[in-house]
């Protein structure tokens, strides 16, 4: 009985180690491949204010499946992605300019699809405004 318990504990320890190593590689990959936003977008002002209802509707339709209902990056499709879907409640996210968030939403890269053909610019800016509400 004690041998089985020790084997179970060892197995749990190995699983925990694998999880830590996997997370570390994911963070290293993200640091090695930063998302470079052109200066034109970095300094771009958001041309709309509010429109949170529109932003929420577009987010629910296009973003929630990966980024989650509360923007935690825990949507049902998130586990299937090769890159982390991000946590919109983090300070690092909120430190980005609206133009940077618009660019990332509009142009996309890797697992993040471009939405320039799926929503209008006004809708994309409304999504930026809505993402700003996540805390």
Brief write-up:
This protein is mainly α. It folds into 2 domains: 1-34; 36-131, Cytochrome c-like domain (Cytochrome Bc1 Complex, Chain D, domain 2, Orthogonal Bundle). It has helices at 2-32, 39-42, 52-62, 64-67, 91-94, 98-107, 121-131.
Beta-strand residue percentage: under 5%
- End-to-end CA span: 47 Å
- In the CATH classification, which architecture of the largest domain applies? Orthogonal Bundle
Number of domains: 2
Counted by DSSP, the helix tally is 7
Please give the radius of gyration in angstroms. 19 Å
Percent helix, as a range, is: 55-70%
CATH class of the largest domain: Mainly Alpha
Structural class: mainly alpha
Poorly predicted spans: 12-30
């Amino acid at each position: 009985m004690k041998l089985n318990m020790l084997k179970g504990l060892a197995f749990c320890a190995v699983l925990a180690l694998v999880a830590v190593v996997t997370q570390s590689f994911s963070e290293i990959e993200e640091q090695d491949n930063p998302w470079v936003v052109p200066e034109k977008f970095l300094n771009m002002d958001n041309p709309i204010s509010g429109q949170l209802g529109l932003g929420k509707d577009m987010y629910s339709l296009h973003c929630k499946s990966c980024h989650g209902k509360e923007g935690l990056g825990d949507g049902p499709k998130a586990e299937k992605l090769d890159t982390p879907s991000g946590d919109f409640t983090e300070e690092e996210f909120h430190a980005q300019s609206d133009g940077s968030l618009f660019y990332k939403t509009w142009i996309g890269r890797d697992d993040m699809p471009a939405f320039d053909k799926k929503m209008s610019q006004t809708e994309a800016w409304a999504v930026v405004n809505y993402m700003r509400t996540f805390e």
